[in-house]
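Duplicate of #3305? Posting structure anyway:
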């Protein structure tokens, strides 16, 4: 199978430079010092890009991160008939999407199968075209990651959905209609999918136990700007008065709170001092105070947040991942990499995904003392990690291993770079500008 970063799979994202077969070589020990520009959020930009399928008018997004997931979704949108126009200048990339015609069945199954967020196409295509046919979505191997909430919600809105042969075939012969939907868990993707569908469905939709992640509010504000009537934005009950044709809109993608938290931990681990531009403490939810209590000093300044190690040093911390505003599961692995060298022990409990400890074995290769007991990892801090050859198994694990490598003694070689590139806009390059010793090299 081709690597995801092969140019052939990506189509025209002129800014994307594929790097198949490369690894990162990190010489640990340099303190990170300088300014790090936090990019637009991966988890916000993907649903925003999909929202452009809901209107024949132009949707322009600014502060778009130059990440592999964005390149893949761009290709998917193009194959569905949308025209994409990229420009640079200001923060990040700007992308204008014109979906004046959409061909709902012209989907690239290989690309969809590799990207979890492609499930969002289901709600948008059903709402706009009355039909959609997608393979089951792929993405990180971090748990079962069912799509039953998405399917049940869309069925409640009148969709007829057949799941067989690894495909999701959905039709809404009479269009979608509003429904009162309760999510068994506050799923981010299901909330977004149902929002995307509801804005074109006739009548009122209520989504109860909705996820409250800020990226959902970003999508909701964009839909509102397009003319949708939404209530309860930011809360756990969202209401949509649907059925109105939507106009175009322009929106700047919110900053990536996961990148923010990860680099703040990296500044503390390396005993450096980094100004994280474009981001504030509020975005981190419960992770902000938690990181502070572990010894990550965070100081808000007008253009961002300064992160450094507190004079008291890093100390153990107990964490339970929770839906927003709780401690983000996406920050669990970076926090673990940091706590691996904190003084004392930390108990880290993962409550969102069942298989999100695959980075533990890699951190152990670097000398971390971590025991896993069911859904809890017990981390006993060691003085220092030691460089090793490690493999990234998902997007956030990749970032965690970069962080571990920055603090470690000697050389760390990180394989599985597709995962890092999927989620982050030139993270390694931005770290180098803060003094990190990182190079990309052909895998040997
Ligand atoms: C999104 C984020 C991901 C983050 C996660 C949780 C994007 C592109 N990805 O993923 O970075 O880690 O939220 O904050 O935004 N579930 C079901 N059935 C469903 C839907 C979800 O059982 O139909 C379960 C999942 O298996 C998981 C939990 O609900 O255990 C939360 O998943 P969800 O919030 O949907 O995560 P994603 O939207 O996939």
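Output from current build:
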């Amino acid at each position: 199978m081709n690597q995801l970063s092969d140019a052939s799979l990506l189509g025209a994202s002129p800014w994307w430079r594929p790097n198949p077969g490369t690894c990162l070589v990190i010489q640990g020990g340099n303190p990170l010092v300088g300014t790090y520009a936090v990019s637009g959020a991966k988890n916000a930009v993907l649903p925003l890009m999909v929202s452009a399928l809901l209107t024949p008018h132009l949707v322009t997004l600014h502060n778009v991160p130059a990440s592999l997931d964005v390149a893949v979704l761009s290709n998917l949108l193009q194959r569905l008939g949308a025209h994409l126009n990229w420009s640079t200048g200001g923060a990040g990339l700007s992308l204008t999407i014109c979906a004046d015609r959409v061909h709902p069945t012209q989907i690239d199954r290989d690309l969809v199968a590799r990207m979890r967020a492609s499930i969002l196409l289901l709600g948008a295509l059903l709402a706009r075209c009355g039909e959609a046919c997608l393979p089951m979505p792929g993405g990180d191997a971090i748990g079962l990651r069912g799509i039953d909430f998405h399917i049940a919600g869309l069925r409640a809105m009148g969709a007829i959905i057949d799941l067989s042969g690894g495909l999701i075939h959905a039709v809404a012969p009479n269009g979608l209609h509003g429904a009162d939907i309760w999510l068994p868990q506050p799923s981010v993707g299901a909330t977004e999918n149902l929002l995307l569908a509801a804005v074109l469905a006739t009548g009122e939709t209520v989504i109860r136990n909705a996820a409250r992640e800020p990226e959902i509010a970003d999508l909701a504000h964009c839909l509102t700007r397009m003319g949708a009537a939404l209530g309860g934005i930011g809360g756990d009950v969202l209401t949509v008065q649907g059925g109105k044709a939507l106009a175009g809109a322009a929106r700047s993608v919110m900053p990536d709170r996961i990148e923010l938290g990860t680099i703040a931990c990296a500044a503390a681990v390396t005993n450096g001092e980094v100004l994280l531009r474009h981001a504030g403490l509020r975005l981190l939810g419960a992770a902000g105070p938690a990181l502070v209590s572990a010894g990550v000093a965070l100081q808000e300044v007008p253009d961002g947040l300064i992160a450094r190690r507190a004079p008291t040093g890093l100390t153990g911390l107990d964490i339970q991942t929770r839906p927003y505003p709780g401690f983000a599961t996406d920050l669990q692995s970076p926090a673990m990499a940091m706590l691996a060298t904190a003084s004392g022990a930390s108990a880290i409990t993962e409550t969102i995904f069942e298989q999100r400890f695959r980075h533990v074995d890699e951190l152990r290769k670097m000398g971390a003392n971590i025991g896993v007991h069911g859904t809890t990892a017990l981390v006993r801090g060691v003085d220092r990690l030691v460089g090793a050859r490690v493999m990234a198994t998902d997007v956030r694990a990749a970032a965690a291993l970069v962080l571990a490598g920055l603090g470690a003694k000697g050389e760390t070689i990180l394989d599985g770079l597709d995962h890092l590139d999927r989620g982050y806009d030139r993270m390694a390059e931005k770290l180098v500008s803060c003094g990190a010793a990182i190079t990309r090299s052909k895998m040997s």
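Confirmed duplicate; merging threads. The pocket of uridine-diphosphate-N-acetylglucosamine is lined by residues 43, 46, 116-117, 143-150, 185, 187-190, 211, 329-330, 352-353 (CB under 6 Å). Confidence is low (pLDDT under 50) at residues 1-6.
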